[in-house]
Write a structure and sequence with these properties.
four-stranded parallel beta sheet; globular; binds nicotinamide-adenine-dinucleotide; alpha/beta; Rossmann fold
Amino acid sequence: MPWDDPGMNDFAQPLPDRSALVIGGGGGGIGRAVSRALAAAGARVAVADLDPQRAQEAAHELGDRAVALAGDVRRREDVDGFVERTVAAFGRIDCLVTVVGSGGPATPRRRWSISRRRSRRT
Ligand SMILES: NC(=O)c1ccc[n+]([C@@H]2O[C@H](COP(=O)([O-])OP(=O)(O)OC[C@H]3O[C@@H](n4cnc5c(N)ncnc54)[C@H](O)[C@@H]3O)[C@@H](O)[C@H]2O)c1
């Protein structure tokens, strides 16, 4: 489909027979919301998270069109396992979503302290 086809911008377009791997953070706030949206559009979803219970809860909520995977995105063998198990469950991966990060302040601490010093001078 050409990129300027109106269908390319139809985000409500269903995704029947498509499968998605929501990797790392799939059981968290954003990952769970993305998983729900993909499932609502008709996709089968593999929910991967460091916390097995979170992954299970998120997949359970989506019913039998979802599987839960537990592992750490920092470990290559775990990521390889996510891919292998998703392909084993659904036969393919059409969409990959990565939703994990360390959190914490968006501004580096050093820059923050410099701006604090500057603000004290003014
Ligand atoms: N929520 C927001 O408004 C917001 C805004 C901007 C950026 N972010 C960033 O987006 C990311 C996700 O946000 P969220 O609100 O969904 O967080 P969350 O804490 O609700 O979920 C994060 C999930 O990631 C999992 N996780 C952590 N380390 C992992 C690892 N090494 N491997 C696999 N899974 C791992 C956790 O078990 C948890 O289920 C974070 O990095 C956050 O800083 C969030």
